[in-house]
Amino acid sequence: MAALPPPVGTCIQLNPLVARVLAPNPSPYTYTGTQTHIVGERALAVIDPGPDDPAHLDALLRAIDGRPVSAILVTHHHRDHSPATRPLARATGAPIIGAAPFHLSDEGPRADAAFDADYAPTQVLADRDTVEGDGWTLRALATPGHTSNHLAFELVGTGALFSGDHVMGWSTTVVSPPDGDMTAYMASLELLLAREDRVYHPGHGEQVDNPRRFVRGLLGHRKQREGQILRLLGKGPHAIPDMTRHMYVGLDPRLLPAAERSVLAHLIDLTRQGAVAEEEGVWRTAR
Q1: Which stretches make up the Metallo-beta-lactamase domain (predicted)?
Q2: For the chain, which domains are there?
């Protein structure tokens, strides 16, 4: 029997330092919804407050329960992760800290992944920068690929990593050019593989209890997709929609636009490797 989804709006204490609250924004791309994580026991950090939804904000404030909030942290500014920073900051007085803002027209497949144009952090974190609170330290880890500004957050001294959308607990992430970059995504996975984290707390889906094995699986999956592309192009030129239909047999039709973006991301990566070339929307192996 399939596991029941976690209850929306309920604060679930994962361990003494980490709790999570599920936002009411399920979709084919967000799974059961965005997971907001709360770190600390007395003074808190809130990671990825999620969409600007009054019910979710109320749930977060109930979970905070009057305790001071030292920082509101953001892994990346897609609309399912960062808009609630603003009402939460007004309610708590906490600074918004994390991924660098930028503006880019969303060429991706889904409205919920569009960039939050109003995202305005008080402080931008670079790789290895830290934020400290009462009994906790969070260290930023640059993990570009899903977005160019994506950060993960290490809870120092615990073996826990808040992996945002770079590593999710239910599916591989969408890598959608022009901002999504498969070369960077693969390099970021290799960076995580070299670490010794004990658990990932992702932005979507359940926690990942064997991170290195999980990351090896993600790398293997992407290599498999790359191999599929090269085998198809070895038989002759193809356009992306045709490749996607061959590679993603049985996929939910609502997810086909996202699959096409991931195929494009792989093709851009293979072009950099000198393996493929494109002319007027048709791709072939490089001569």
Answers
A1: 32-204
A2: 11-210 (3.60.15.10), 221-285 (1.10.10.10)
* Cα separation, 171 vs 61, whole angstroms: 29
Tell me the pTM: 0.93
Q: 255-281 burial, b if ≥16 CB within 10 A, otherwise e? A: beebbbbbbbbbbbbbeeeeebbbeee
d(C-alpha 183, C-alpha 168), whole Å: 18
Partners of residue 39 on adjacent β-strands: 18, 45
CA–CA separation, 251 vs 165, rounded Å? 21
Share of the chain above pLDDT 90, in %: 84
Contacts 24+ apart (CB under 8 A), 269-275: 269/182, 269/183, 269/186, 269/226, 270/226, 270/229, 270/230, 272/183, 275/230
Angstrom distance (rounded) from CA 265 to CA 165: 16
pLDDT in tens, 217-256: 999 999 999 999 999 999 999 999 999 999 999 888 888 8
